[in-house]
Amino acid sequence: MKKRIGFLVNPVAGMGGRVGLKGTDGVVDRAKKLGAHSIAPAKAEEMLHFFNEIHKTDENIQWVTCQGIMGEQALNHAHQKHIATVYKPKDSTTADDTKKACQELMKQGIDLIVFCGGDGTARDIFEIVKNSVPLLGIPSGVKMHSAVFGITSRATAKMLHEFLQGTLTVGDADIMDLDEDLYRKGEWNIRLFGIAQGIIEPTYVQVGKTTFESVSEQGIKDELAEHIEDEMNDHPDMLFLLGSGGTIEYIAQKIGVEHTLLGIDAVFQKKTIQKDVNEQAILSLLKKYQKVKLILSPIGAQGFILGRGNLQLSPEIISAIGIDNIIIVSTPGKLAATPYLRVDTGDEQLDKTFADKGFFLVVVGYRFSKVQKVQTNNF
Amino acid sequence: MIMTRSPTSFLKEEYQELVKNAFDWKLRELETGSKPHSIVDGKEVMMLCSNNYLNLSNHPKLIQGAIDAAKKYGAGSGSVRAIAGTMDIHMEVERRLAKFKGTESSLVYQTGFAANSGLIPQLVGKEDVIISDELNHGSIIDGVRLTKASRAVYKHCDMGDLENVLADADKKYRRILIITDGVFSMDGDIAPMDEVLNLAQEVGAMTYVDDAHGEGVIGPDGRGIGAHFGIEGQIDIEMGTFSKAYGVVGGLVAGSQDLVNFAFNKSRTWLLSGSHPPAVAGAQLAAINVLETEPEHVKRLWDNTKYFKKELNAMGFDTGNSQTPITPVIVGESSVAKELSNHLFTEGVFALPIVFPMVARDKARIRTMMNAGLTKEDLDFALEKFERLGKQLEIV
After folding, report:
1. Is the complex ipTM more than 0.90?
2. What CATH topology corresponds to A3-200?
3. What are the domain boundaries of chain B?
């Protein structure tokens, strides 16, 4: 049965990087003046050539794309046969074209969107598509912190191949980008913007000596929710601070507590007592509650547990909570994609505490944990 | 309300789903015994995938041992061990086994599966933790699923990881049980049991090794992993099987008398299944005798292993981290492994492909199991085919 694959190239993605800009959104002209060339179309073609080598056929694919440089051209150069175009961009493309193209793609009933760009492109696509269709990014942007990208164009080709074979599956993928508010204040921070669907390694459980059963992402998250709920039931005198991300969001929903997808919430006796708390609010809570546990999940393509988008958890707060009171939860698929848990608290001494511990036992199922090593920037 | 439930339609539906995804097991029928050369599905093939490592299934002493015991004691044991099914021959096996392995005592279960699923749930409960090598889920899944213990996993044979997990577990749990395969069945590598034991002793953790592929294979005279590392009797639970190198059937657990007393009183699989037919016990006893008096079988198994691996590597094949007669021939993509296996079978060599998800996606392999019953001519026969087909399929 044919899979309908959306294909979208952002011709301006990545142009900012070579010339030292922090992204290309809104600054294409400046980039061009600084001598930047369009790189994404070539990257897209490169991926498709690798894909041809690996997949060897295109009989089972119906490509749905945009005319010209936003997709059709690359597909033609890669000798793909079944191409349908649904959008015609202007000569000089902008984020608006990406979004309009996505709106057209969405009307076509597609199974996957393959795009060529960076975090900016991913965000634009996500704005329209949300988590209704999985995304797979050919890495060609200035910033690529989102968890939808293959590591290289060849790796992306392989992922597309495996997806078509049915040996990879679909699951949560964090969309990350620069926090513009902070940037305007002079601070550089990458934060979570939302949870899309990406292509992930499925989780297999051995049910016998040589038999495997695949467990759905939801099945695992149900187990994680059960595990956290047990913790809450076993410790009625404990304050739980729930971190951000899709996994913790699911857990909160399952347990029945209110949660902010992109923020930190305070939960006591299975009720949310304060939503989306900032640093001051957390410090007040820490004065009031003797026992605290902080529940975090790896965010983005690099598996950051601290330092990306949760600046409310300042070094003072982390030190007050204590490294032993941090519970990390993750689906095995997420852990497989991020071999280290990354920490960047902003405080060198505190980072060293994490580096010295060296590992966390990450909860990956009901009362089931796995060792994952920790990496900090400087240690 | 009219119920429209079909009682058994799921049987066909789920089976067909497996067939559709090629996850179904396809049984091959042997018309002969499990010999180095057998007739499988009507075709004569050389067996490179049997667990009958020492070819003891066909040893005249084992066959005679089975016959003599059947003549003396009958076709069946008549009962479960706990009631009236413990014959003196069953007890003799356990005594001789303990002596052979250098432990205080031993207990025989119906199968290795029964040993794991019967004993593990009795060792740990809700306040405890089972720590296992990430690759050996198979050895504990059966038992662990029946427990309420927490579970933690460390990277394959990574002693640094294990140390970290133990440090963490030490603070949280009542009992700690470390379980690992002795010989890992996909790669043929050996767990660093001596190091595991050291780390375990630091925090008072129990050590459990599933040595199914090590019994009769590693250690002097094939006495197993305890003997292999010179730590006989120190591993708390040495679990193994008679179903592989010993050439018969049955699970075994070796350790202290305290362990055995606890195990046979508490393992439901032991208490509630009929004991082995006397012929089985007779063959098990004969197998122990053979291992004690005929070292040539284990020696030939290892000579064959070294030769086969050396020749494969010289041809350019990747045999991974194999340290035992389990010799994976890593070929890459699943489809290539399946193709090679099919070609080999057509040409008279029977070796199974192991593909994703049993192993990593790009590390599909033909898993060959060496055998003491193979001659050098046999090995050369197989090697020629590996070389030619390997070149044909562009593996080497």
Report:
1. no
2. Rossmann fold (3.40.50)
3. 24-53+295-392, 58-293
